[in-house]
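2024-03-11 09:14:02 INFO worker-7 job=invfold-0412 stage=load source=structure_tokens
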């Protein structure tokens, strides 16, 4: 299991606004700002997102490499996938696959894909065998 991920973005404020809206339907609503000067020399400022007492998705300003990253976010059901996709699109995402079954993986793999404002590939995923309601 992963503990956390850092994603470099070109405009921190824009990305914080985008992810605040896009991740809310998944219950990822906890926000934390970390001042880099509190860390070791050269530590970046971080904008964190999480749920259930854990901050696990962090943004930092830096070099954007969208083809190098794909992030899949867990949804607890198909409705959450649909809502996250709609929220991301409202927040400025570009479509990368409307909600639906991903039969090429498994008939029970339900997901939606978007590109965030920097072009990173995001997926909102519900797998009933891994993420029971």
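2024-03-11 09:14:09 INFO worker-7 stage=emit residues=133
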């Amino acid at each position: 299991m992963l503990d956390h991920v850092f994603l470099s973005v070109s405009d921190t404020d824009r990305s914080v606004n985008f992810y605040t809206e896009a991740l809310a339907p998944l219950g990822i609503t906890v926000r934390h700002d970390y001042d880099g000067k509190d860390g070791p020399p050269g530590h970046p400022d971080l904008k964190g997102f999480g749920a259930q007492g854990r901050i696990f998705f962090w943004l930092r300003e830096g070099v954007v490499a969208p083809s190098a990253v794909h992030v899949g976010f867990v949804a607890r059901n198909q409705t959450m996938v649909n809502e996250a996709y709609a929220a991301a699109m409202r927040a400025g995402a570009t479509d990368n696959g409307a909600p639906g079954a991903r039969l090429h993986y498994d008939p029970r793999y339900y997901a939606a894909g978007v590109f965030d404002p920097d072009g990173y590939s995001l997926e909102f995923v519900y797998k009933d065998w891994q993420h029971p309601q």
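2024-03-11 09:14:09 INFO worker-7 stage=report msg="The CA atoms of residues 34 and 46 lie 5 Å apart."
2024-03-11 09:14:10 INFO worker-7 job finished
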